[in-house]
């Protein structure tokens, strides 16, 4: 069964049809890229998937369960994680403490609060940081981290909530090209290992074509192409949108 199913999702702002009858699905462990020019409707789609925006029409299902129009908090509790363009860490706390906090909040969500806080979450937080190649940064305050490292902490925090679906809106914005590839390669390998469905938007086409299993192309609110990277790259409509040819 697909982790996420989206059926004829629609949203207008005044006279602007931002998203027009968009349908797609994401499988467990799949990396699905949503691309399209500025204003194509990518962020609007994301906002409808995590409950920030209520669709005008259409359905969103998570593991077969209808989550259309549910509040962001409920959607998050059901296993939809999201990373943001502006990172949300506590700058004066260390990397390890930030991840421990996220694990604590996840256990609270599951109603598991009988174990002492620091002891219960320290080992899993360290394991998660090691998986993200960040063991050497664990004791550093988040406030002094390089931007690329902060993005990885953000990924660790999202993963601490054990998401079934991870939404990443321009996860590599502001990062150096090699760092981008590194972050997405890591995301892809963890997604496969844990069966997390990942939906991401991205401007860097090297990242998209290098790490997406499948690509959706939006143009003025409508899906104009969908398929594996090689197929989408060769699609004349996609070339037209991107090259203005
Ligand atoms: P993308 O993320 O692909 O750049 P968006 O989803 O942000 O595109 O925007 C799609 C369209 O909807 C654009 O025309 C944008 O101006 C419009 N739009 C997005 N959010 C709002 C909003 N809150 N109010 C009015 N118009 C909006
Ligand atoms: Mg956007």
UniProtKB/TrEMBL annotation:
* Coiled-coil stretches noted in the UniProt entry, renumbered to this chain: none
State the UniProt keywords alphabetically. ATP-binding, Nucleotide-binding, Transport
Set out the biological process GO terms recorded for this chain's protein: D-alanine transmembrane transport; L-alanine transport; L-isoleucine import across plasma membrane; L-valine import across plasma membrane
The ABC transporter domain covers 4-245
What molecular function does GO assign, one term? ATP hydrolysis activity
Q: Name one GO cellular component term.
A: plasma membrane
Question: Highest taxon of the source?
Answer: Bacteria
Pfam families hit by this protein: ABC_tran (PF00005), BCA_ABC_TP_C (PF12399)
Q: What protein name applies here? A: ABC transporter ATP-binding protein
């Amino acid at each position: 069964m697909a982790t996420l199913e989206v059926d004829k999702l629609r949203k207008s702002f005044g006279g602007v049809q931002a998203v027009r009858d968009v349908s797609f699905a994401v499988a467990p462990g799949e990396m699905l890229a949503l691309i399209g020019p500025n204003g194509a409707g990518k962020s609007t789609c994301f906002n409808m998937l995590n409950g920030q925006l209520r669709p005008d029409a259409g359905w969103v299902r998570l593991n077969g369960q209808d989550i259309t129009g549910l509040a962001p908090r409920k959607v998050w509790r059901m296993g939809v994680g999201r990373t943001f363009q502006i990172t949300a860490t506590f700058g004066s706390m260390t990397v390890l403490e930030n991840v421990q906090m996220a694990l604590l909040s996840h256990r609270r969500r599951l109603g598991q609060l009988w174990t002492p806080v620091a002891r219960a979450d320290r080992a899993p937080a360290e394991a998660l940081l090691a998986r993200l190649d960040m063991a050497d940064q664990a004791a550093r305050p988040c406030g002094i981290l390089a931007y690329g490292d902060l993005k990885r902490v953000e990924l660790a925090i999202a993963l601490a909530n054990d998401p079934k679906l991870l939404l990443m809106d321009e996860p590599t914005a502001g990062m150096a090209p090699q760092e981008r590839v590194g972050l997405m390669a890591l995301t892809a390998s963890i997604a496969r290992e844990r069966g997390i469905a990942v939906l991401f938007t991205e401007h860097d086409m090297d990242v998209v074509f290098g790490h997406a299993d499948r690509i959706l192309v939006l143009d003025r609110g409508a899906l104009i192409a969908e398929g594996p990277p090689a197929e989408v790259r060769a699609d004349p409509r996609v070339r037209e949108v991107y090259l203005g040819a």
